[in-house]
Amino acid sequence: MDQRVELRHLRYFLAVADELHFGRAAERLHIAQPALSQQIRQLEKLIGVELFTRTSRSVRLTDAGTAFRPRARDLLGRLAADLHEAGRVGRGEAGRLDIGYISSAVVILSERLRAFARRRPDVHVKLHDGFTVDVLASLEHGTIDVGIVRDAGERDDMDLLPLASERFVAVVPADHPVAGRERVEAGDLAADPLILFPRAYGPHAFDVNTAPLREAGVDVQVAQECSNWHTIIMFVATGLGVTIAPYSVTNRLPDGARRLELAGRPTESHIQMATRRSDDRPLVEAFLGRR
Amino acid sequence: MDQRVELRHLRYFLAVADELHFGRAAERLHIAQPALSQQIRQLEKLIGVELFTRTSRSVRLTDAGTAFRPRARDLLGRLAADLHEAGRVGRGEAGRLDIGYISSAVVILSERLRAFARRRPDVHVKLHDGFTVDVLASLEHGTIDVGIVRDAGERDDMDLLPLASERFVAVVPADHPVAGRERVEAGDLAADPLILFPRAYGPHAFDVNTAPLREAGVDVQVAQECSNWHTIIMFVATGLGVTIAPYSVTNRLPDGARRLELAGRPTESHIQMATRRSDDRPLVEAFLGRR
DNA sequence: CGTGATCGATAAGCTGTGCCGATGGATCAG
DNA sequence: CTGATCCATCGGCACAGCTTATCGATCACG
């Protein structure tokens, strides 16, 4: 029974309910009075109920009309708001953005988020943490819209925008023979057990950043895998082995650990913002800073 | 921008959003595919935002479309519910009924309410207590739809349906000379101070029910007005005077008061249900028991 | 790398319906 | 009784929305 009801009916109904006068209501709607009478009759027929009691001298709302009026008004208000909201979402002024990130990028991410929230206060950002592989997979799958990753390899389905770069440095126990030095040769670490992030969690990053070790003839055998930088640093501090790590995660070392520059060709590790290449949605563009 | 949006647009939008295929959606809507394409385009133009990204091989929702979909669905659902509800109100199956009543009619009112609530569980009844004059005025004014009153005079703008009738009886202090008798002549009360309901709260009831006193030659001078039957009875019990009262309010007398039949022509007091004569709304008819 | 199938957009013409102006009928004031 | 007011009804018309036919783009397949 409601299939043929249209918003026109509701708009006309509200006008008549406001004016309680078909002539004036029609005028307000910029139509002639007969057209209005017709449409109201039609609406009543569609609902199966009289909405007004009319005599040739007066128009009054029935109980049904009285009950329906606030609902109709509310409905039209909602629709207007929803259409407006849809427009804002379309223009990237509002909406939801799902961002995946790696934990060692929280600082740079939070800076970006703060600036973005100021520019787009009505955008709800949902965060998903994970390792670089997870973030890239989620991005590919569509679970997230933007990924913050470290040293992702070149991919033809994604755009990678460098956000920051930092050196990898060595971290050794304080009682290690080289602990007092400013810098260390990669070869000096050859004898020590290596504690590293699992390669599976970021194969390209692993390969790139361990390259100096391999070039120095070190056989990169991981003695202990650990997927949390802070835990890795603690392992080093307690003498379990040595590691190489992004500079930023070595800022506040515990007492038992020492940071040393790696001699030779420095390895730059890049934190990157990844998006799907086909994805040109305004919200994503906005987060990238393109508008 | 939303003036020309119609429900048709929303229905079509939802069909395409469900199917993600213009051909199938058109089929579901029983229209041809070009018509659907046109209407969707038109909606997009009205909102100012693309709702779908279409290639010749695939149709996907944009962010704006994704955001709009649940809202559009909700809107159509609400409308259907509201139309249904309006229909029920029109048929008197739901809605709100305002009932005015006098306190001495609570028993008979509560019986009626219980029966009515069983027949019309979705009708919300709002009660307004007052004196007969107030109830009649509210009814005339439209604040209430039904009034329960006592001995309203004939009125050409109202229908009065008798619900119950009862005698007026005398109530005297237990130490009154006539207290031991079964019945009393009106004249026997002539010497005692009269405690009565204010005439203004129900002039016709007052005149009708004090008529036997006047006919017996009693000069009806109200020594003490009181607008609460239980208080009046208490006054009598403490020896302040005598009263005549509807039988039903003398059912549980305090120790100091005695009830006596009034001799002579018995006065029948009527509890009546009053409605506006022009009021033929189904809910009112239903409460009257006419359907 | 052509070929057919799929699918949405576009074009052109038709049709239903929503609107208009004119008129009717009921009610009320004076 | 007369004129004014106001909603309903009637007949005609214009246009919005629908139809069929066709195009162009994309993809699967041999």
From TrEMBL, chains A, B:
Keywords from the named record: DNA-binding, Transcription, Transcription regulation
Short name of one Pfam family: LysR_substrate
SUPFAM superfamilies (UniProt xref): Periplasmic binding protein-like II, Winged helix' DNA-binding domain
Keyword Nucleotide-binding annotated: no
CDD domains linked: PBP2_LTTR_aromatics_like (cd08414)
Domain of life: Bacteria
PROSITE patterns: HTH_LYSR (PS50931)
Gene3D superfamilies: Periplasmic binding protein-like II (3.40.190.10), Winged helix-like DNA-binding domain superfamily/Winged helix DNA-binding domain (1.10.10.10)
Residue span(s) of domain HTH lysR-type: 5-62
Protein family membership: Belongs to the LysR transcriptional regulatory family.
Name by which UniProt lists this protein: LysR substrate-binding domain-containing protein
Source organism of the structure: Nocardiopsis endophytica
